[in-house]
Amino acid sequence: MNLQFDIIEILKVTMVLFAVIDVIGSIPVIIALRQKVGGIDAGKASWISMAIMLSFLFVGDAILNIIGISVSDFAIAGSILLFIVAFEMILGVQISKDSVPATASVVPLAFPLIAGTGTLTTLLSIRAEYNLLSIIIAIVLNVIIVFFVLKFLSKIEKLLGVGGIAIVKKVFGIVLLALAIKLFRKHTGL
Fold it and tell me: Contact, 79 vs 187, CB < 8 A?
């Protein structure tokens, strides 16, 4: 288990997870959810999403071993999924058809919106490339960001405006697309 502190690596992983979680790009969905349920518990959603991410980070590899899939295979599959998510962000299209039912802060906010399939796939994919301590710190930093975004949702919505949210989503889509290509090349030898 590699537990080396590397600030540059932590920043890289934090940015990757920030792009995948896409809490800024999800603000319109979160606002609609808040209107349906009457409020969002920022603390509860944050803690549960962090627990899901950390659990998958540690047991996801064991699950893959049980079903006979290597981390490289999962990284390639993850890179393809990231590629699709990046296209959704950049082009403003929706390929996945997950609906957002009117429920509590746990479902659909913590899972699958924050700690969804893209995030979980990314965690295992980046685990093949970055050290574990960097990933854990990046998860914690992202959950802190998620908490503050959820806590101050109304103020952020007013500050960024519709155009600002769209720009942020496109920029992180391009970062995500570059990461998908990097992961694919690394694990396929291209």
Answer: yes
How many angstroms from the chain centroid is the CA of residue 57? 13
The amino acid sitting at 113 is L
Tens digit of each residue's pLDDT (9 = 90 or more) over 130-145: 999 999 999 999 999 9
Cα gap 17→125, rounded to integer Å? 11
Q: How far apart, in whole angstroms, are the C-alpha atoms of residue 166 and residue 92?
A: 9
* Overall pTM > 0.70: yes
The C-alpha angle with vertex 67 and arms to 179 and 121, in degrees rounded to 5, equals 20
Residue that the structure tokens 């999924």 belong to: 81
φ/ψ of residue 159, rounded to 5: -65, -50
Distance CA 141, CA 135 (A): 10
User: d(Cα 7, Cα 1) in Å, to the nearest integer?
Assistant: 18
Q: Which residue has the tokens 């049980």?
A: 66
